[in-house]
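Tutorial, part two.
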Amino acid sequence: MAEPMFYRETVLDNGVTVLTESLDAVRSVALGVWFSVGSRDESPAEAGMSHFMEHMMFKGTPTRSAADISETFDRLGAELNAFTSKEYTCYYARVIDEHLPTAVEVLSDMVANATLAEDACAREREVVIEEIARMEDTPDDRIHELFARTLWPGHPIGLPILGGRETVGGFDHAQSVTFRERHYLTGNCVVAAAGSVDHDALVDLVRTHLDLPRGPRSTRPAAEAPDTGRLAVLRKDTEQAHICYGATCLSARHPDRFALTVLDTVLGGGMSSRLFQEIREKKGLVYSVYSFHALYQDTGQFTVYAGTRPSNAEQVVRLIQAEIARVLDSGITAEELDRAKESIKGHLVLGLESTRNRMTRLGKNLVTGGELLSVDEVVNRIDAVDRETVSRLAHDVLGGQKVLAMIGPFDADAVSHLVE
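Running the prediction step on this input gives:
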């Protein structure tokens, strides 16, 4: 007998999709309005526009000022925020269930009717440029932007989500309106909610309040990986050298993504991981070292990060390479496999005690073309991973050319020999 769906889904006549997961034991609702538009959907002249639009949606509508929006949610004791990624933008609120109608109405007004006024654009340009400046002064953030740019040279998916000073400095009312008209369409929109929510009632609320221009789901150019190893070094007089090392990997729907999570966990996913134990615990060369993976619609990245004193940078890179080589040569042990599986399942279940995390899982998966699985289905996929699959996947992802990005007080010539 098939397992009942853990969520309900309705596609409105205009193309907006409504997804809900009802939870009986809570009184709150996490509500997200998602759009399938992110930094990879921007032209070079628009770099940073998705994130800029995220800011501008809070700056007022014909019937509400920016202060009105903030005061409404403060009065409800609610949470209101938004975030932008390479492939989506999400506006979300977390409210007591009785205030869901207000949250739907105000969020709908924000995303559909923001005035994008010229004076607000001028102020927010400066705010975002300050955000860019903060990122540029934070090398452990900036290294990830440098790594992505090197991993996907010449493609928007490799560009910073925040954009650059030059492009952001030119954003105005007309450009904002044009961008919204192209991307904020019904076919690109998913409304997701988790918690104390009635699906049919939410569908009626969305149908009543969310009035977006009709349009199909947007297409986006494929991301092509480089076919040779690459090196990027940003010379900066920092006390630490910041290192990212890795390669492109799987897409969001790839069947091996669960084996990738196991590989990630064993290699650098926690304090018992190989990288942490070898580089921090045994050698004492770093405070922070970890691996992570990010999966997109048609590609992904597997990355190892480490921060160390510049004099230790070469040794740390060599140790990262050695641990990867050890996985490629010998695979992982049965004990590592079991420990990784239990860790992954534990983090999954603990994370799903949050209504916001449940809402995010729904919205993100649908808006990126991912797969909506119940907790039991995810657990079964994780349990099905074996050592042979992890070994094969490691060769597929890490057996070829890698990208190395570094920020520190040295030139590219001094570390070029580290690129394999």
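The mean pLDDT is 94. In part three we will examine how such features are distributed along the chain.
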